[in-house]
Amino acid sequence: MKRAIGVIAALLILVACGHSYGDTLYVEQVLEPEQEIQTNGNIKEYTPQAEEEYQPYEEYQPVEPQKIPTRAVTLREWGNFAWEFEYFADIRPPLVLTDYTPLGYLAIEQLHFINDHLYSRKPFSYREKEAAAWLIEEFLAMGHPWENIIVQEFHVYGDPNATGGAGSAWWNLTNLARWQSDFELRYTTRLSQNIIVTIPGQTSQKIIVGAHYDSWPTPGAADNASGTALLLESAQRMLAADNYYTIVYIFFGAEEVGLLGSRHFVGRLTDEEESNIVLMINADSLIDGPYMIYGTAYNDNALPGANDITRRIDAIAYELSLDIIGHPPASFLGSDQLPFLMRGHTIVTFMGLYRTELPGVTGFFRLDEAEFTRAVSHSQNDCVHVIEYRWPGKIETSMSTFSIFLDALLAVRW
Question: 2-411: which CATH number, 1.10.10.10, 3.40.630.10, 3.30.565.10, 3.40.630.30?
Fold first, then answer.
């Protein structure tokens, strides 16, 4: 009987997670594909992982999720939408933030909203554009000035008919079964966008805080509504703070098909802008397993190098008594910190992973005789309801811990 109740509960969770998944805001000029500025050649070509990925579940098996209708967005709406102020003029109230709001609390609320209402944020799709517009609405609700928000659009890289290498993103999106969803691609423009919001500080030196907001055709809770939600809470908290550094929050598009948003951003930086970057902080897949991990380094000939900043980050994690594992090689995992790392910047990246000692499993890295790998991302199990069922209380713990860590890093004068 107990087993039956568990199976029924799991099926209900999977059903809950099943989805058919001036006057104009400043928009940076879009480069034509042949003009696209490439980042340092040391960046490895994007190689999708095999689809037969390890899923550590015993309680239940994934089932075909039920279709849940969402607000219809016509091509006419999004095709003609060019980030005009009129669309955002009706500014809603922000989430309530007081001096007593625990760190991570708002992030959990945002995480649940994205999971349930903005699932299947496929790169270069109208759904991804809808998520980008929602992010701007959130910034305006928080009180960020219109002039401090930038939409940085970019085309899909390379030959749209290419079937391999970095130029294969569009082909993958239009041909591979794992990318099929009810939300259409932007076939006419083949555009994605980074959403950038800046909080000016006492100095022009900058801390970049980044997370990608696109996802596979799943709820994308861990990957990467979790990182997106973390940044949203931080952007609301830091707005009222007396910040020494200028903080630049970047919500990257099209990460899932080759870090295209972050590569575009880094490739567009001027020498002066690069020299002003003190630290890049990245948040990706914070709840993709019960183990909280960070990696901090600079690129020392393709090895994780240590400097005063990385050593201070390690000290902060230790002093805060955070139950978080520091592992410098994690700095080189494939996420949006990588283009910054390869251009010589010091970075720190946050993640949550699953630990297994099962034979035959190859994870992202090996540590203490175990492999650390993803648990739910890139599958229909990447849903807050599944994650909470699998590890009760884990979402609250992870979002709180990473919020405390991020808040501490932004308060330091490096």
Answer: 3.40.630.10
